[in-house]
Amino acid sequence: MADPMDYRATVNLPDTWQVAAGGDARAERAGAARQNVTVTLSNARCFALTLSRRYVEVERASGSGITVRAYANDRAAAARAAEAAAKAVDIYSEAFGAYPFESLTVAQADLVEGAAFSGIVMLPEDLYAYSRRGELEYQAARLTARAWFGEIVGSNPAEAPWLTESLAAYSALYYYERAYGRDRYLEELNARVTPSLRLTIPGGVTVDGEALSFGTVGDYQAVVRGRGAAVMHEVGVVLGEDALIGALKLYVAQNAGRIATAADFYAALSQASGRDATGLMTELLTDIDQYVGQALDWYE
After folding, report:
1. Biggest CA pair distance of the chain
2. What pLDDT was estimated at residue 289?
3. Poorest-confidence range of 33-42, 80-89, 176-185, 287-296?
4. Which residue from 136, 189, 251, 299 has the least number of CB within 10 angstroms?
5. Has residue 156 been placed in a domain?
6. Average confidence (pLDDT) over 99-119
């Protein structure tokens, strides 16, 4: 995870193509049927862009004043992505602190799985089908949360991937609670988290394991995202949701611009809850499947 820096890139391409990138993109003519698109992005940990000649752009403004631009091959699908991301920016800004950039780009991309970079979220093409609109919303919410957990606060993705993956996965569930109510939160929790607790995964891997300790991508996702979200939920059950959300906000504020560690999160959680939370976190991170029970049918 890189330290924040400033980026500037110029792309020369046909004038029928569009560039979707984090930051500010400005186009100018560069000869017959060509253009130069210059993208600038400040105080960012990474830089990414995608381009297409089929993009349709839809723009939305979040309630917190952030411009959300969505690019997709279909206008209605782009609008769904923009609306979900704008809603997520507002929910997370209120809960965790201000979004770090002036804009957020959400782009359809030729990927197997979604990805988050500084100022841009890329989502796989198959999520833009109307039949997958629910998954599009979830992934937009999950990856938008990476602006706080991964961008504002960095961490080591090889040694402690849970500090981004688990916190972002829980944030997506919190998005549903704030947007639609507690029943929807529980519905998403049980659909996305409970199955991961029932799995038998070889190798004794834990939520706080290093990235290379996982044998497959599926194991990584089930443990670090699924069980990781369960860890955060259980922390909220034990310490109270207000303490957990307060801890996440403290964690962001106290570690902005830094590469944080598990100890930094434990410290924020202890401060917000008024008790030493290190033991609780250690137990949950290493044994969450036993803590809640693999036979669990429904969170309440």
Report:
1. 67
2. 74
3. 287-296
4. 299
5. no
6. 97
Residue 3 — very low, low, confident or very high, per pLDDT cuts 50/70/90? confident
Residue 57 phi, psi (nearest 5) = -100, 135
Taking all residues of the chain, what is their mean pLDDT, rounded to a whole number? 94
* Residue 293: band (very low, low, confident or very high) from pLDDT cuts 50, 70, 90: low
pLDDT at position 204, please?
84
Report DSSP letters for the chain, one per residue. -PPPEEEEEEEEEETT-EEEESSEEEEEE-STTEEEEEEEEEEES---EEEESS-EEEEEE-TTS-EEEEEESSHHHHHHHHHHHHHHHHHHHHHH---SSSEEEEEEES-SS-EEETTEEEEEGGGGSGGGHHHHHHHHHHHHGGGTBTTTBB--TTT-THHHHHHHHHHHHHHHHHHH-HHHHHHHHHHHTHHHHH---TT---TT--GGG-SSHHHHIIIIIIIHHHHHHHHHHHH-HHHHHHHHHHHHHHHTTSB--HHHHHHHHHHHHTS--HHHHHHHHHHHHHHH-TT-----
CATH number of the domain enclosing 267: 1.10.390.10
Hey, CA dihedral for 214, 218, 222, 224, is it positive or negative?
Answer: positive
Q: Is 24 exposed, middle or buried (0-12, 13-18, 19+ CB in 10 A)?
A: middle
Q: Which two tokens stand for residue 253?
A: 């504020």
What CATH number does residue 50 fall under? 3.30.2010.30
Q: How many domains does the chain have?
A: 2
Assign 201 a pLDDT band (cuts: 50, 70, 90).
Answer: confident
300 is a domain residue: no
Residue 213, amino acid? S
Q: Which two tokens stand for residue 191?
A: 């659909």
For residue 118, give the nearest of 149, 87, 147, 75 by alpha carbon: 147
What residues make up the domain containing 53? 5-147
- Shared domain for 178 and 266, answered yes or no, is yes
